[in-house]
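ARCHIVE RECORD
Type: protein–small molecule complex
Small molecule: pyridoxal-5'-phosphate
Source of inputs: curated submission
Record status: active
Notes field left blank by submitter.
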Amino acid sequence: MESVVGADLAGLADRVAEIRARVDTAAIGAGRAGGEVEIVGVSKTFSREAVDAAYAAGIRIFAENRVQEARDKFATPLPEDASVHLIGQLQTNKVKYTIGLFSCIESVDRLGLIEALAKEAAKREVVVPVLLQVNVAREVQKSGCDPDEAASLVDAIVASEHLRLDGLMTIAPFVADPEDARPVFRELRVMRDTFRARHAGLALDVLSMGMSGDFEVAIGEGATHVRIGRALFGSR
Ligand SMILES: *Cc1c(COP(=O)(O)O)cnc(C)c1O
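STRUCTURE (tokenized, with ligand):
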């Protein structure tokens, strides 16, 4: 695979341990339980060997942003207790490849995609777990729905018996000081609480927010899943 760049496999187990410790410290600092926050290993551009090394070091959820790359990388399935999330833009014509490949589509951000996913899931008689990706900071060129559209998209997902809305996802703006991303993480959590209140029985337990540069701040604001690429696998 051309996208195999030099993951430093020798140091991977140490980095997993170091990130795990920082994640747990941040959780405890926020009055939460250590071990409660899931580290999602963002393996995009890295090889299957890097994924397998991260699995051996304890990572159980991986994330990819391209369907074709994931199809190639996971042609040989992962062990039963590991899974892969999709975190990149999903074109509707690729939806058919996502079922069975990804255990969660974190990047659901528009009605056409919701409809395509619901239709494909119905055809296959499965229920697809998804997150709604919200462009909280309304950055141009960033994927994710406009915050003003989020409520109606939540309604659309919830209306499909073939989709299961587990929570929300966001990518914070890239800022020099991660503290500057805090309002974005906080706003996603507030949105989640609002949707939870509006839909009885909808837990929306998952808040996928925080990356290599800002995960500790995200955990302070309630992240349940942090998506870590560079800090685990090295620079891309
Ligand atoms: C690449 C990517 C990440 C990981 O970013 P790092 O800075 O490498 O930790 C997280 N989330 C999304 C949606 C990404 O595309």
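CURATOR ANNOTATION: The pocket of pyridoxal-5'-phosphate is lined by residues 42, 44, 65, 87, 171, 211-213, 227-231 (CB under 6 Å).
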